[in-house]
Amino acid sequence: MPNALLHARQSIRVGQSGFQPVKNDDRCRPLRKSPNLIQTDTTMKNLFPIIVALSLLAAGTLRADEFLPLLKANGTVYSNITVTKVTTTDVFFIYTNGMGNAKLKSLPPELQKHFNYDAAKSAEGEKKLAENKAQYRQQLLRAQPTTAPDFSREPEANVAEGLEPGQRFPGFSVSDVSGNPLSSGGYQGKVVLIDFWATWCGPCRQELPNVISLYKQYHGQGFDVIGISLDEDPNALTTFTRQMGMDWPQYFDGKGWNNQLSTKYGVDSIPMTYLLNRQGIIIGKRLREAGLAAAVEKALAEK
Q1: Which helix (H) or strand (E) holds 79?
Q2: Is 74 exposed, middle or buried (0-12, 13-18, 19+ CB in 10 A)?
């Protein structure tokens, strides 16, 4: 979804969803105003991006949230498509069986024209993505090795200062949204992504297709995901994760921004992720897209 439209919609929903857009960023932060009041800034400065985004939608320039009954790409037919984002290389969408994306170059000519496909720009985008992935992989290879942690230590009570790569991730032992035991210690020997997110967070949802794809591709090789949901409605969470095919466990306590684990780890914006290697060491923080994929691949290759 284009940033102007994303921020506009978040601004409109600010009193309902309990979050606010971050200027020049793509994360969600808690409201710092009184929870009993819906405060709205109606200055033209704040209304301008909303007006522009809605005007572009009306003119048909933006494709976000467009509905398509069918979409065919690479021999696969998707039904009941809602477009969430269009880039120079891909179209991202939600469909009947979950979330997905398709290369613009694989679409029929009429859809390529519809999404303003430019072969030259698409090729340049693919080249840039490959270069970034290769560069990030080289950076990981040059990183200094870390010492395996002492798992005999008790989990820290609070990590208000946050955590950085190279540190041991402090353990937790809770119950997931279904009431089953959920402990970070139970994932020793696995590469784990700890994902702080919420169903109402636009940037979180934009990154989901990438996380789902990585999970399906590498779960059998030892990659796992633990979701820490800042939602307040358990039914909304379970319905969404089931529809999206998110088969990993979710921690939920219904406290929103006062979530027990997000408070413990000093999380003040989402999405917030920590990637842990097989020894429980943080090897990445706030990784997304190509950077996350490269880090997961490298961590799985290390025994």
Answers
A1: strand 76-86
A2: exposed
Q: Which residue has the tokens 């700890």?
A: 194
How do the pLDDT tens digits run along the chain, 303 residues long? 443 333 333 333 333 334 333 434 566 766 544 333 333 333 444 444 444 444 434 333 345 557 778 878 777 888 888 888 888 888 888 887 777 788 888 888 888 888 889 999 888 888 888 887 777 667 666 655 544 444 333 444 445 455 788 899 988 999 999 999 999 889 989 999 999 999 988 889 889 999 999 999 999 999 999 999 999 999 999 999 999 999 999 999 999 989 999 888 888 889 999 999 999 999 999 888 888 999 999 999 987
What are the two backbone dihedrals, phi and then psi, of residue 234, each rounded to the nearest 5 degrees?
-65, -35
**pTM for the full predicted model:** 0.54
User: How many CB atoms are closer than 10 A to CB 132?
Assistant: 14
Element (H, E) at 175: strand 173-175
Q: Which residue in this structure is represented by tokens 């429980």? A: 280
Which H or E run includes 101? strand 98-103
Phi, psi of 195 (to 5 degrees): -115, 110
C-alpha torsion 152→158→159→160, nearest 10: -170
Place of tokens 């090729």: 123
**Cα distances (angstroms) measured from residue 28 to each of 46, 197, 286:** 17, 9, 13
